[in-house]
Design goal:
Distance between the termini: 33 Å
Bound molecules: coenzyme A
Largest sheet: 7 strands, mixed
Radius of gyration: 16 Å
Number of helices: 5
Shape: globular
CATH superfamily: Gcn5-related N-acetyltransferase (GNAT)
Strand content: 25-35%
Strand order of the largest sheet: 1-2-3-4-5-7-6
Number of domains: 1
CATH architecture: 3-Layer(aba) Sandwich
CATH class: Alpha Beta
CATH topology: Aminopeptidase
Structural class: alpha+beta
Helix content: 25-40%
């Protein structure tokens, strides 16, 4: 009999959210490889996210397997803004509010005290991602604006779709984790 693979968790299991550690770096790297259209980064980059940036990254486990990961950091020159780099949820765990819950969990952390704006970039055709961040803006009762951040020709020399900067904020209250757990249960 074939042993269960990394995406084999049953959809009924309750996710456990926590900050990552360097020991999670390889599993995060593998999860991102299973989540197109995300760009893969080097394993070293994922290790840095899971160590230097662990306080502003979140990992979701289902039955001991990694089912979701968000990399994020406070902008060095505008620390009231949390920049969300990548959001990845394994295919079987999708459609259950996990990505939105991970984002709200991040914003509720002490490490995000004083954050009143969230930014990310989304390619124009990533419907799931637009829906996720539109839903988040609704949950935070905050405006969502967009502009081009990295242009297909100017920045990617035609080799990658433009990345649209999405800004959500300002929001006035930090989400309460328990409240959002109830809403997303
Ligand atoms: C995008 C992604 C992270 C969403 O994860 P998820 O856990 O399924 O998302 P959620 O269940 O929290 O959904 C949040 C909202 O987005 C909507 N949504 C999620 N996936 C969607 C899809 N494929 N099409 C349309 N809407 C979608 C949900 O309906 C929900 O809206 P609601 O709150 O109004 O009901 C996941 O599909 C993924 O990992 N995709 C591949 C990688 C990627 O594209 N990442 C985003 C770019 S950084």
């Amino acid at each position: 009999m074939t042993p269960p693979g990394p995406d084999a968790h049953p959809p009924s299991s309750e996710p456990h959210l926590r900050a990552p550690t360097a020991e999670d770096g390889k599993a995060v790297h593998d999860l991102i490889a299973r989540c197109p259209p995300l760009d893969g980064n080097s394993l070293y980059c994922n290790l840095l996210q899971c160590s230097h940036f662990a306080d502003t990254c979140v990992l979701a486990e289902v039955d001991g397997q990694i089912a979701g990961f968000i990399s994020a950091y406070r902008l060095p020159r505008r620390p009231a803004t949390l920049f969300v780099w990548q959001v990845a949820v394994s295919a079987p765990a999708r459609g259950r509010g996990l990505a939105r819950r991970m984002l709200l969990e991040l914003l509720a952390r002490e490490a995000c005290a004083g954050v009143d704006t969230l930014e990310t970039t989304i390619t124009p055709d990533n419907r799931a991602s637009w829906s996720l961040f539109t839903s988040l803006a609704r949950a935070l009762a905050a405006p969502l604006t967009q502009a081009t951040m990295f242009d297909r020709e100017r920045h990617f020399q035609g080799g990658h779709a433009s990345e649209m900067l999405v800004r959500i904020g300002p929001f006035t209250t930090r989400p309460q984790t328990d409240y959002h757990r109830r809403r997303t249960a």
